[in-house]
Amino acid sequence: xxxxxxxxEQPPNTLxxxxxxDYGFPDVGHLYKLEVGAPYLRVDGKTGDIYTxxxxxxxxxxxxxxxxxxxxxxxxxxxxxITDLILNSSPRLLEGQIEVLDINDNTPNFASPVLTLxxxxxxxxxRDSGPNGVASYELTAGPEAQELFGLQVAEDQDEKQPQLIVxxxxxxxxxxxxxxxxxxxDGGNPPRASSALLRIxxxxxxxxxxxxxxxxxxxxLSENSPMxxxxxxxxxxxxxxxxxxxxxxxxxxxxxxVRRLLRLDRATGLITVQGPIDREDVNILKFSIMAKDKxxxxxxxxxxxxxTIKxxxxxxxSIEIRGIGLVTHQDGMANxxxxxxxxxxxxxxxxxxxxxxxxxxxxCVVAGDVPTNSLKVQVVDVNDNxxxxxxxxxEVAFPExxxxxxxxxxxxxxxxxxxxxxxxxxxxxxxxxxxxxxxIDPDSGEIRVKAVLDREQRERYEFLVVAADKGSPSLKGTAxxxxxxxxxxxxxxxxxxxxxxxxxxxNMPPLxxxxxxxxxxxxxxxxxxxxxxxxxxxxxxxxxNGTGTILSSISFDREQQSTYTxxxxxxxxxxxxxSAYVGVTIxxxxxxxxxxxxxxxxxxxxxxxxxxxxxxxxxxxxxxEDIDSGVNAELTYSITGGNPFELFQISPHSGDITxxxxxxxxxxxxxxxxxxxxxxxxxxxxxxxxxxxxxxxxLANRTLLDTLVGHSLDTPLDIDIAGDxxxxxxxxxxxxxxxxxxxIVAVTLVIVLVVLVRYCxxxxxxxxxxxxxxxxxxxxxxxxxxKSGKSKSxxxxxxxxxxxxxxxxxxxxxxxxxxxxxxxxxxxxxSPRIHLPLNSPPGSPDLGRH
Length: 850
What we know:
Blueprint: E1 2-7, E2 15-18, H1 19-22, E3 30-36, E4 41-43, E5 49-52, E6 75-84, E7 92-101, E8 114-116, E9 134-140, E10 149-156, E11 159-166, E12 177-186, E13 193-201, E14 211-212, E15 216-222, E16 230-233, E17 236-237, E18 247-252, H2 256-261, E19 262-264, E20 270-273, E21 284-293, E22 300-310, E23 318-322, E24 328-330, E25 333-337, E26 348-352, E27 376-380, E28 388-389, E29 393-399, E30 406-410, E31 413-414, E32 424-429, E33 438-440, E34 446-449, E35 460-469, E36 476-486, E37 494-495, E38 499-505, E39 513-516, E40 519-520, E41 530-534, E42 541-543, E43 549-552, E44 563-572, E45 579-589, E46 597-600, E47 606-609, E48 618-621, E49 623-625, E50 635-641, E51 648-650, E52 656-659, E53 669-679, E54 686-695, H3 702-713, H4 725-767, H5 808-818
Parallel strand pairs: 1-7, 8-13, 15-22, 25-27, 29-36, 38-45, 47-54
Antiparallel strand pairs: 2-5, 3-6, 4-5, 6-7, 9-12, 10-11, 12-13, 14-17, 16-20, 18-21, 19-20, 21-22, 23-26, 24-25, 28-31, 30-34, 32-35, 33-34, 35-36, 37-40, 39-43, 41-44, 42-43, 44-45, 46-49, 48-52, 50-53, 51-52, 53-54
Helix pairs in contact: 3-4
InterPro entries: Cadherin-like_dom, Cadherin-like_sf, Cadherin_CS, Protocadherin, Protocadherin/Cadherin-CA
GO molecular function: calcium ion binding
GO biological process, one term: homophilic cell adhesion via plasma membrane adhesion molecules
């Protein structure tokens, strides 16, 4: 018989002992099986090591240990069958015991957390034994009771009886109760403790406690005794009288089983049977009885009672047939593998009797009217067939954007074995990329999708389905599954760019390509077939669906519109269709299709230059514009005619005209410069301007000068009017005409002035005003120039002040006002259409020459 020892409450998988090493069994070739001892124990089938399990061994809860006397050992029975696999012999049965050692895992507790009583103090209960039991009591009192009460612990029959000692005079009328705290502690390591409130009520004097006739009462009680059967009677005496001598009996430190099986008469102390007595459940009852008088301050005494249960032959032997070794039993049937060798032990027949002594001695025979049991032997299937699928390869189509846990398909396999060898468990073997996407019901073979599938991410899934039976060892079969993800129209068309910008030359013919867009759709088939169109179409553009090429329906003119903006719409062929939009900007590039045009000066204007103007001084500026852009609008200026003396030079970039040489006497008169303005386009375009300069000291005869400028506009550009003989003769004829006109105008002005002078003098005579001196010399001179138009020419000092010289702006404006015909056109052909005859007197200043 094997005996091991282990402390209670050990964690799971604690090694208790090793049958192989402790008893000399070989390390290999033996099979160990636990027959008795579950659920507290388990045995390693190869090594024979005995371990604890998840079910904790609690010494205080084991049925075998609940009614032990203090100090008695507690044993847990076990049986292990050992089969020699090499010799293939019948298993042998090894019986053993495990002594469960007590640990201090229980705290002593009072029956109630608040104790309201007089003497004596109830004992504290500790389910542990030996040194782990109750070790000490401690009393704690408030300041009002510290000097009145003490605690004395008396030891009686391995028990510690706390007694409350009164150390001072008690006066109920001053203090009728006291609340004390009594603490109990066991002797464990570490010790456990608890406390209770001890409430002391001060009563009138009762100074004699009851006294039992015996300190220990013992009796025997046969099991199955009838209800009301007398067991024994305890008796106590009290030397007091009256109520102080009337005794009340009660159980003290009695277990629930004692209180359930026995009844105590509180008045007589008679103990009788009140529940079924079965020795097989409990073989001894130990408890205490308290006798307490009925005085105002009751006193009590205790005695011990031990009742031994006598066995009666009331249990028939029981026969148990159970498996042994490799043979298992279930529902009275031995399951034998179909390939079991001959002489293999089929079952273990075990006979037991719950009685004891002679009543438990049994004889096994196969005859007579005695308890029997039967055994059915069933040949158990051996797992020698692997599962087989109905189809080794299955391919299904499943739509994307599914709901999680949707059913995809169901696979089925069969196994030619029986029982657990034919029970199949299905599982999946997937690659890492699709792990977690699908699951299979291990019992039914239903394959469900766990994730939302997206065809655009993955179009096909392939994996293996494994069917494994529950045999030992398990056999497996496999099948391949392919899932094709069907497309749904769940993606919008997508332009490759968020916006498109194209540039195109102006003047291109209609239906010329201006750009190309690319649009994709992640879907498939009709869901990815895209139609393109121009949104808010005004007919300017069209788009080819096959290529995404944008064509112009018109010829562009950048000067009319340089930028076109519109949206393209892409619609797929799904149901319902999905669409996308993108913005397109067409920038029309410039072509040199516009010539520069002159903004100033006008062809019909002139600029007065004084003879003493210094060389290098700017005398005018040609301004021009070009409505093209870029290099097509960059302008250069040049003098192409009318500069025979090379007096003038023009800046090619700014158009500033400067005087290059000192002005001589021969240079006096009217000059006409032909200025050409070219852009930098290829080919270049140009415009022409006429710039007139009048070189002279004064502008005394503006009318004549206006006539000369008008005559210049009718003169071909290849003729230099400065110094040309034909032009000089033409000017003389013009001078005579201007002289006549000037004479008529002068006479008219003299008459008007005389009238005005006489009129003013008459008014001045009346008002006392003195008129100033007349200045008839500058009759045709312009008005005084503004502050911003001061002349830079030097003027000789004179007693009579000269009229101020006109500014450039005033000269051009004055000439335009004096002409009564249209001189606003900038072309060379612009000239007055009417010439008035002039009768100027001979000898007018400079008219003969200019």
